[in-house]
Amino acid sequence: MQPAEKSNDASLAMRWARAILALATVMLIRSAGADGSALEPLDDAAIARLESVFPGASHFAARTGDLPHFRVFKRVGDGDSEELVGFAYYTTDIEKLEKGYKAPINFLVGMTLGGEITGIKLIQHDEPYGYFSIETELFQEQFYGKSILDRFRIGRDIDAISSATMTISSTSRSIRNSGRRIARQYLAESGGS
């Protein structure tokens, strides 16, 4: 094979590699919902999870957005119309780098347009002490009504649990910080305060 032929083969291979990379990038962006498409279908299980963190909602819009979230609606007036009343989101979608003792801890969080947490639900964790810390209803209930503007200080705003400090700290930070990011991104455009 002549040097010119090797150069042409290498050039063709490089063009193919670039085309495949571009196609893979487009497919990844579309699967992540960056084009506005839904990231998660709202089946009965998803709706039940959402209702657990945002009681009284009449409708949930499918998860979309750069910071993936569900829009939460309630019926108003005679019940023929609905208004946006908040958001729900998975903490690991928003705070991807936050992790507990062993791995990321994923909570589904409901939040009003005023930045008040309406509920949290543990979705997944691999924490060695999770069974007596973040899995308990008592731990999760302390977030109800808490503002994302609160400091979430362990031992003051948030109950501390011996032997699970890293797990509790990570969970509290991810709930607070993801709520603040959702608020900055979406509350202003939704008319929230």
Describe the structure.
- By secondary structure, the chain is of the alpha+beta class.
- Helices cover 38% and strands 20% of the residues.
- It contains five helices and five strands.
- Strands 1-2-3-4-5 form a five-stranded antiparallel sheet, with helices on both faces.
| Helical/strand content category | alpha+beta
Question: How many strands, which pairing sense, and closed or not: the largest β-sheet?
Answer: 5 strands, antiparallel
Compressed to H and E, one letter per element, the order equals: HHEEEHEEHH
Number of domains: 2
Q: What's the N-to-C terminus distance? A: 70 Å
Beta-strand portion reads 15-25%
Number of strands: 5
Count the DSSP helices.
Answer: 5
| Arrangement of strands in the largest sheet | 1-2-3-4-5
What proportion of the residues is helical, as a percent range?
A: 25-40%
Averaged pLDDT: 83
Q: How does the overall form come out from the CA principal axes?
A: globular
Radius of gyration in whole Å, from Cα? 22 Å
Low-confidence stretches: 21-36
SSE blueprint and pairings:
Layout: H1 3-31, H2 44-53, E1 59-64, E2 69-76, E3 81-90, H3 91-94, E4 106-112, E5 117-124, H4 137-141, H5 165-190
